[in-house]
Design goal:
Layout lengths: L11 E3 L6 E3 L3 E5 L3 H6 L10 E5 L4 E3 L13 E3 L1 E7 L15 E8 L2 E2 H9 L5 H4 L5 E3 L3 E2 H4 L6 E6 L2 E7 L7 H11 L7 E3 L7 E2 L5 E6 L3 E6 L2
Parallel strand pairs: 3-14, 5-10
Antiparallel strand pairs: 1-2, 3-4, 6-9, 6-15, 7-8, 7-14, 8-11, 12-13, 12-16, 16-17
The protein binds manganese (II) ion.
Length: about 230
């Protein structure tokens, strides 16, 4: 079999302490997974559940790599998030077994065209174009479970130009990593190489060209991204 044009190699994410790379298969995302963010997003945390959406695998951007301000938005937002890296195929797994499928964890930024998201949400249309655009998924190196275990608490924070904007704790997540993997594995066959962005705490806001976002999750890593 020959190809009519060369296929692109899988997008790659660094693994802390290893020369091997993590080849990205799919990027899943969880929305509305911190109560204080659900409230700031204008929803009632007692009436909505976390939601799933996706980004293309080649949206990943490594730590320290600049992101160009995207087209078709004038309200471009950051969202600091814990990212799960899937290491084994997972299909219909139980919450009790879900941790076995996690290779490691990283720090991610779910970049969002907020104006488009709110317009599409208001008319009940899919918000893919507000979330799944080019370079919309900055991510730190992945830290294997064999090194850091399964973090259940730790400050999750983001600064813009040195000023703190988001400041929460991953222990505030509504759906925990095991519950997220169990739920997603009922909807999709998860594969090694899948990344799951697990939602953001309160404090979302805009950035413009020239801004520098520094973010981190204590016990995992930091992630710095400049908008140009
Ligand atoms: Mn998000």
């Amino acid at each position: 079999m020959t190809l009519i044009f060369p296929s692109k190699p899988a997008p790659m994410v660094d693994i802390a302490g290893l020369s091997e790379k993590f080849p990205v298969n799919r990027i899943y995302c969880v929305g509305l997974n911190y109560k204080d963010h659900v409230v700031e997003f204008g929803e009632d945390p007692d009436k909505v559940d976390p939601v799933f959406f996706m980004k293309p695998a080649d949206a990943v951007v490594a730590n320290g790599v600049d992101v160009t301000y995207p087209s078709k938005t004038s309200n471009f937002h950051y969202e600091i998030e814990l990212v799960i890296a899937v290491g084994k195929q997972a299909k219909n797994v139980n919450v009790e077994d879900a941790k076995d499928y996690i290779y490691g964890y990283a720090v991610g930024n779910d970049l969002t065209r907020r104006d488009l998201q709110l317009e599409l949400k208001a008319i009940g249309m899919p918000w893919d174009i507000s979330k799944g655009f080019d370079h919309s998924a900055p991510i730190s190196a992945i830290h294997p479970v064999s090194e850091i275990g399964h973090p259940t608490e730790g400050r999750i924070w983001l600064r813009v130009n040195g000023e703190i904007q988001q400041d929460g704790n991953i222990n505030q997540m509504i759906a925990k990593p095991s519950q997220i993997i169990a739920a997603l594995s009922q909807l999709f066959v998860l594969e090694p190489g899948d990344l799951i962005y697990t939602g953001t705490p309160a404090g979302i806001g805009p950035v413009v060209a020239g801004d520098v976002m520094e973010a981190g999750i204590d016990g995992i890593d930091r992630l710095t991204t400049k908008i140009i």
